[in-house]
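Researcher: Last one for today. Full complex below.
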Amino acid sequence: MAGLIVQYTYDELTSDGFDYQTALSDLSVKKKRFQDSGDEASANEVWRQGQRVKIFQLFATMHKQLQDEEYYESWCTADRIDIKAGFLLRNFPQDTDMIGSLLDRVHDYQKMFPYRLFTSTVMREKTVRCTICGQEVTPWSTCTHEVGKVYNGELCCREIADFDLLGADIVTNPQHKYAVAFLSNGKVGGRQDNYDYSVLKELRKLWLKPFQPWSCKATTIYRPVPKGTKDNDLCPCYSKPNSYKDCCKGKPGIESLRFTISFQE
Amino acid sequence: MIDIRNPKFGSRREWLKHFDVAETAALLQSDVLMLPAGYCQAENAFAAGSADLFKKLRSMGLNIEICATPESYSELSLNSREIRLGKFVVNIDTFGILLGFLTSFIAGEVSYSIHKNDTQSIDFTQPTKVEVTFIVEDTTGVRESKEIKFEGSADDFAKIAESVDNLWQD
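Model: Here's the assembly. Have a good evening.
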């Protein structure tokens, strides 16, 4: 049965005229048919094809958002690709051949963003349910579904049905990268974006087609310490929520990164 | 980083009493007992994902119990990207087996989205960190239990096994 499922190739998924939405609609109909007939292997295979299509679609979206200078939105799309790719590779590790180079580019892209500090919530999860069987997940429940695995064409996740919010932290290595720390825009509300996107602006000029291959290497450099920097000021490297004296003081300068981007024909 | 010290409580009975869980033969005699992680925000809560991990370890054949009741069970989610395995009381004879299972579990968790690590200055590109505490019991009952706390990269997790030889050395 799985043989009847169309296998999209890398060349198809990266071609100019590929219609991601139509492909996803077709796959959705097929998946339902397999699910209804109890053909789990085929339903899982359709899920796999759907994840591939979504990853390539999101990659094109991420590129467009960069071109439109929607930097934060593009950052969030990169995170969605990373998450989807993680679930795809957990179930189908052999798909590294298909999406590995794309994922490397996403990771390189994420490094070029100026975001280093993120908000993170602390939650006491009181009721957690399995999205496959709906059972509450506790050590005593009989649910045997594994989070992150695909069952009959659906991904097993955990749904937090009841929780207490205990606090929020600033972290440098977040579970959810979309939670970028922004200043609020005073009484007006909304986000105040003071980040320096100069690296991305340079990339934007060179990265003209979404699936054009490129790679990037980051090198540590040291900038002169800005005049007037005091020991207890937030360190001008902005890599951690540390004071200057606990961060870059004692180094040859303010630690920074230089990116060398190589484009292939 | 591996830190070896004396645990807060020396026996399972004291842990069960501390967390207000009734003693049963199964809880006292299992090879492994999962404890609340001991976070200051919620001392009785387990690390996020503990229920899934508990069931996985049991399905692998480990004789494991958990120091909680269905009424009091909750998990604490700290959203920085780290594998928090929580706290285990384990007898010395089973310690190696538990480490093997956890090593395999960690490998499964970290292998899907690895960043090319060409800079140390961006935390979110660094290898996934692991945090776990073991309270190792001497099965003969002659020596006092020892606590091993590990915080480090997933790649270094296997080094815990090397620390076992030094557990009861002065």
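The mean pLDDT of chain B is 86. The two ends of chain B are 19 Å apart (CA to CA).
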